[in-house]
Amino acid sequence: MATLIKERRIAAESAPSPEQGEVLRLEPSDDPAAFADRLDRVARIEVNFPKFGDGRGYSIARLLRERYGYKGELRAVGQITRDHLFFMESCGFDAFLLRDGEDAEDALQAFEDFSDSYQASVKRPVPLFRRR
Question: Where are the alpha helices (DSSP H) in 33-123?
Fold first, then answer.
């Protein structure tokens, strides 16, 4: 059974109420610009990662957070493993539905694998080190 990690904790699945907004699911080939005008009515966006090596969802997350200002829950779904979590979080994801069979406790440790990142992220838009 798949496990949900939300805000660096194991969480129970909860569907948003109609008053909170709808759930929007984006596939790797979807353009977030096509949904930009309705993001204020969306409670959660799920970005699907159908294959381990398909990285288009990372770009979708950055666009949603940085260009379109989406503030709601941004959940990674599909083939999500421990190895993805640290970088997914830096791209703006705050919830992760692990694929079946992933150890949730082990996955939580992925957030501590690196003490810092050289790259800019959604949380820190200026890189740690700049070229001079």
Answer: 56-62, 85-90, 104-109
- Beta carbons within 8 Å of 79's beta carbon, 6+ residues apart: 49, 50, 51, 52, 99
Q: Percent of the chain beyond pLDDT 70?
A: 86
Those residues whose C-beta lies under 8 Å from the C-beta of residue 125, and which sit 6 or more positions away, are: 66
pLDDT greater at residue 39 or residue 132? 39
CA distance 15 to 27: 20
The 3-state DSSP class for residue 25 equals: strand
DSSP state of 5: E
Distance CA 98, CA 75 (A): 10
Single pTM value for the model:
0.86
